[in-house]
Amino acid sequence: MIRFKDDCRPFDPQERQIMMTPEDPAKNIGLRIVFRIAKEHSYQNLLGLNVLTVKL
Fold first, then answer.
1. What are the distances in angstroms from CA 16 to CA 19, 30, 37?
2. Are 34 and 47 in contact (CB under 8 A)?
3. Bridge partners (DSSP) listed for residue 33
4. Which of 4, 25, 34, 47 could form a disulfide with 52 if both were Cys (CB 3.0 to 4.6 A apart)?
């Protein structure tokens, strides 16, 4: 399990996954790779912190 935390502006990678189009496979390549190899992933914004949890 990997957990990323930062205090940048809110960024929900799951919303980006919805916007991905099969016509451009290079767009958001990092997110595509993570979502493909992850068994589970979740995003929360807690107390102004982005918290992304990825279970491999």
1. 5, 11, 17
2. no
3. none
4. 4
pTM, rounded to two decimals: 0.77
Find out whether 31 and 20 touch, Cβ atoms under 8 Å. Answer: yes
Q: Where are the beta strands (DSSP E) in 1-56?
A: 2-6, 40-46, 49-55
Domain that holds residue 43: 2-55
Q: 13 and 43 in contact (C-beta within 8 Å)?
A: yes
Residues 6+ apart with CB under 8 A from 52: 3, 4, 5, 13, 41, 42, 43
Number of domains into which the chain is organized: 1
- For the chain (56 residues), the mean pLDDT of every run of 10, in chain order, is 95 80 80 91 94 96
